[in-house]
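Hi again,

Forgot to attach this to my earlier email, sorry! This is the prediction with FE3-S4 cluster bound. I've pasted everything inline since the attachment limit keeps bouncing my files.
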Amino acid sequence: FTGVRGHASRAAFVTPPYQKLVEKLERVRKILPNEKLTLAEKVLYAHLTNPEESLSGVSASQIRGSLYLKLNPDRVAMQDASAQMALLQFMTCGLDRTLIPSSIHCDHLIVGHRGANSDIPDSIANNKEIFDFLQSAAKKYGIQFWGPGSGIIHQIVLENYAAPGGMMLGTDSHTPNAGGLCLFIVSVGADAVDAMTNTPWELKAPKVIGVHLKGAMSGWATPKDLILHLAGRLTVRGGTGHIIEYFGPGVESLSCTGMATVCNMGAEVGATTSLFPYTESMKRYLEATHRAEVANAAANVHQQHNYLAADAGAKYDEIVEVNLSELTPSFNGPFTPDLNTPLEKFSKAIETNNWPKKVSAGLIGSCTNSSYQDMSSVVDVVEQATKAGLKPQVPFLVTPGSEQIRATIERDGITKRLEDAGAVVLANACGPCIGMWKRDDTVSTEEPNAILTSFNRNFRSRNDGNPSTMNFLTSPVIVAAKIFSSDLAFDPTRDVLKTPDGKPFKFTPPTNIELPPSGFTSGDTSYIPSLNPEPQPETEVTIDPKSTRLEALKPFDTYKGGEMDNLKVAIKVKGKCTTDHISAAGKWLKYKGHLSNICNNTLIGAVNAATGEVNVAYDNGESMSIPELMWRWNSKGQPWLVVAEHNYGEGSAREHAALQPRALNGRIILTKSFARIHETNLKKQGILPLTFANEADYDKIDAEDKVSTRGITRLLDGALEEPITLIVTKQDGSIVEIPCKHTMSKDQVEFFKAGSALNLIREKARV
Ligand code: F3S
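Structure tokens for the complex follow:
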């Protein structure tokens, strides 16, 4: 950041308004005297729109897990796939600029194939219409635009915008990454538009899980192993409705970027966000990334007000103990990030589960694990093997998280050493992490194959679109070591390999360098947008009506009032139904800005509970794909609902998973439970999320049953506590009543009445 855009002004621009924040917190302390606050509560309450309005009259025990808070985040970041819809929505609000600082990051649409030099120009050519749209909208509304090649949203946020004790929203599920720099940062879908219009952001006060860290890692253990271990213990639902807050002496032993890895993958357990208290390593990271002023301001506010750590005696809803000294490498997967197998048990698990014996590729980097520390330790491992004459046995792909990381590891010779060993360095973008991976090696879609990645998510088809690819998540150093044997069971901490001249070779535990000794270099500074771009209202943002990739939005219809009386169950889903099942990524990413076209992927990953088939629905005995049925019913004006099991919509913040059903005339989603972001997204789009009051009632309702509601009229009148009952007419004419629960707040009822949150914002903007 030397030169053109200047450090000093940037630091001033990203330093949170600490004075204002601690004043608000003081007001909260007057309302809740004697209350010992967790760090998460402090930062949340410091961002309340109006503490007295939110908290007066409630006791501390009535807040977590029940009270809706209205908050004012400091900033919003959007990735290119979700930014399209956010901007299309924003454009309908009638404002001429975003009302809080916002940024767009072009990272998801770039395919990983032969390497950055050819992949970036190819992706720019293939996505020109989208990038032009995003860039022109950014210019028009005063949004910072980080173009293709600049890096992955979470890494850029960490390097540039994250500041301890601030609050941000981001339209990507791994947004909480910057909790590793003590930023309260939450992944949202439709809420991004509220924030850009300065409508207070509403969040049900999460409960707080305290993770007490003691000891320090050594040997092969890395921060990745901490979160892999925790994901195994907490499971993919364990963090739902919770913030994970780390505390204890072990915290000080972690690097800032290591803590970011841990927070990044808090998304895998469904946590609202994850947060570390302010540490010396955060200070070092801020200084190394040209934000010493932010570090000084943070240190001051912390010293004077203890703002950046929990109060002594703060109470957590649950405490999880982890001794870092006992952590060992492990693997999570396949197909779910919470299936944790420690390295020492992995070889047995391969046999027991009949997992593939061979590794087919190793991938490191992405937003989760591409820090300088990660890359320095990987190169240490790789060089141990190459110096002994060994070569990688499978393709080895490296994704730097940002231009700053890319340029710094290139300058320091790390890239050359990796490439000399056979690694392919991909663009600074998501690539294989989000299914944008063009694999040249021939793997069958019938036969399982195993890949090892240091990414964060491993749902079926996530990386290469192949449902037979099993992704085992592990640390970068374990990936780097294991690629020197094609045997999946190879344990680099114990096993011996044979060098070409027949000598035994054994890895020694890797070393690492926390931060670049000569500082970070910015690389290509043309990627860096100006700090506070003025809106340029004369900029034309064009959407070609014939485009297959962009489509102007039409507002959804308002709710006509009364009860719903003629719904039909479109599909009853069995088992896991993540946002990847509801709105697949990969090749569908290119339709993110075209609602009608992307509707063709709605629920194509869902398993039909009656038949076990994937993406098959029935209409009077006629079978068809799920989107086909939804389009058919939509054209007949037939409203419908989906029935599903637990944690429906887990995974990402993908707003399309709510937008698409709504566009196709879905009105209710009935489940055993929801993932938080998805449930909020549904409410924002005017869909009513309901859960079974008795889980066993899932068995009483089937596809094509007719449904009417009892209780919505009362809900519209503000009777939030009253239940809603579904009256289900079975196909044999019998009638079943299913009592349901909901979590609609007063404001969310207004979204429902208006047809969507956006309709409401537009109405308010007109007044
Ligand atoms: Fe998300 Fe992976 Fe990109 S987690 S931001 S898709 S690198």
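Residues 278 and 308 are 6 Å apart (CA to CA). The longest helix spans residues 372-387.

That should be everything now.

G.
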